[in-house]
Amino acid sequence: MTDTRMRRGRAALAFSFLVQGVAFALLVTRIPAIQDRYGISDALLPAFLAAVPVLAGVGSVVTEWVVRRVAPSLVLRWAQPVVLLALLAVGVGQGMIQVALALAVFGLAVGALDASMNMLGVSLQRAYGRSIMLGFHAAYSLGGIAGASLAWLGAHGGWALGVSYAPVVGVLLPLALLGSRWYVDAAAGPVGVAGGTGSGRGVAFAVLLPFCLVMSFAYIGDSTASNWSAKYLQDVLGSSEQTATVPYNVYMVMTLLGRTLGDLGVRRFGAAAVVRAGAVLAAAGFALVAGAPGVAAGMAGFTLLGLGLCVLVPQTFAAAGRIGFEKGGPAGSDAAVARLNVFNYVGFLVGSPLVGVVGDAWSYRGAMLVPMVLVLVTVGYARSFEGTGGRYGDGHERARAADVGRDGHRL
Hints:
The chain has helices at 3-28, 31-38, 45-66, 72-92, 96-128, 133-157, 161-179, 205-236, 241-244, 246-269, 271-291, 295-309, 312-361, 364-367, 369-381, 392-395, and strands at residues 187-190, 401-403. The chain is an all-alpha fold.
């Protein structure tokens, strides 16, 4: 594969991650407006919110089956426009049935999108022969910050949902379709690196279990920061309403910073060391939040939390993809990523209710210790990440990829 094609594929995929970050942020940050527009009661809202990650898990499972027959790039090429159009439908619908259908489509398409994006990311990392996966997720974080900022503008200006969503979709949809021309599929590993000779068989769940647990624990931590940071600062630490909005913004900025620099750390120290350090930092952040004597300490805790958690998810995808590739070639890598992606939504579903239940039964300070303990468990699994990242696989110097297309011919 030529350097030009690899660079275009990398840039196109990074843009896809950014678009997904924008779309998801525009949805979740305008939930109160969605609730008001469609008259969704507080009792019914959790069912609507839970349906999105549940259906996303279904979409990820279906994607594993689909990519046995078509390239992941084709799934991504059509899943992303569907996500954007479903977002627009959420903004312009006229009744509860319409918004329910739009959210259902959004969830299914997001599952396919997340799975196929990460399949292509893992594949490109193999082609490059060095860690680039964190950079893709940095683009997602940047998109999330941009989407949240656009949502703030819409809310501050009192714009209708459709007015907020339509210009964004109108700009991003054609750009995403244009960028999809340069996606790159199914790269084999660099020349001289063992693995990838399998027949495309699936990977046993027992092999993926450590990565599934790490993925779940990371998203439990992430959903805790996303859903509880403002409430915690205001209700537990006594901040103002305006100040309570700051920790999540800081968390997102630190996530972007950590992912932007993270690939350099993986190349220098290895994925296992980066995962171990990230888990310890995240646990320290939760501990600081739980014991914070005041607002400043609480903000410092969420800052550490963002810097630590941000490296876990990209490295988990990369490690599972590597194991899948060794067991079953490109098809095995795709299957491993799709299965692992389901636990993204498991963690998202479990995290917020878990903190709420523990907080109500005990205290919200004590509730922060639960994700802290779960993230610390990740340290015990860090060894599973050895051989992922720095110089591809087992430490070989970078070599050019022998990129093999779906039809078995060199590209």
